[in-house]
Design brief:
The structure is a homodimer. In chain A, 65% of the residues lie in helices and 12% in strands. By secondary structure, chain A is mainly alpha-helical. Chain A has a domain of 65 residues: Winged helix-like DNA-binding domain superfamily/Winged helix DNA-binding domain (Arc Repressor Mutant, subunit A), CATH 1.10.10.10. A two-stranded antiparallel ribbon of chain A has the order 1-2. The longest helix of chain A is centred in the last third of the chain and has 25 residues. Chain A is globular and about 60 Å long. The model of chain A has no long low-confidence stretch (mean pLDDT 95). Chain A binds a DNA duplex through α4.
Chain lengths: 104, 104
Amino acid sequence: MTAISSKLRARMLDALAHPNRIRILEAIRLGHTCSCEIGPELNLEQSNLSRHIRILVDRGILIPERDGVRINYKVADEEIYQLLDLSGELVRRTTERSIREVEL
Amino acid sequence: MTAISSKLRARMLDALAHPNRIRILEAIRLGHTCSCEIGPELNLEQSNLSRHIRILVDRGILIPERDGVRINYKVADEEIYQLLDLSGELVRRTTERSIREVEL
DNA sequence: TCACTACTTGAGCATTTACTCATATATACA
DNA sequence: TGTATATATGAGTAAATGCTCAAGTAGTGA
């Protein structure tokens, strides 16, 4: 069991560290598997969406599957959602801590 | 249980999405609690280190505690390390998947 | 007070990022 | 072949990021 380099981990986290990319992953989680659905759903400009998805595919987070004209995306690893959920949990706790501080 | 906004989650992930900030957190995990130790350990220029630490403190990830001239840092929430470990696990799996693909 | 250590910050710079508009490519099907 | 739908990309731009050097602030103890 070797430690993964900070550079690679940063690259993985960086791929997720954008509101729109998180929203894209959440849309896929809810069953919107192609960008022709995700775009309108999230109200993202087509080329912008395309570039965000490209980042997720390039980093090995999404896997594209062509189906005629459309391309369906699935997450390569469901564990990615654990990571997203954890980040939400951390935000929640951090917020609560700072509220407590103000109250003291 | 409300969903945390993608913006806040992105902000949390973004705070971690840099090789040096990950290395700083790992150094703290190993017991190097002040930047006077972390700097030499990681061979980071002092002002650069200061700015990275500032980001981690501002985001509520690190908590500073003055002790004379030095400032000791501790993580606000140990769960941050779960997140870092998870990112490493995802990198590992992603790498293995791409190796398997080449072998097919 | 002065000097020393620890840390912060202003300023400047190069690089990267996110975004948009317009255009190009790819697939399906008449 | 032509047309429609889905996706990708070139080019340009504004803003953010990471870094460094130099100068500043803060606490400690002589």
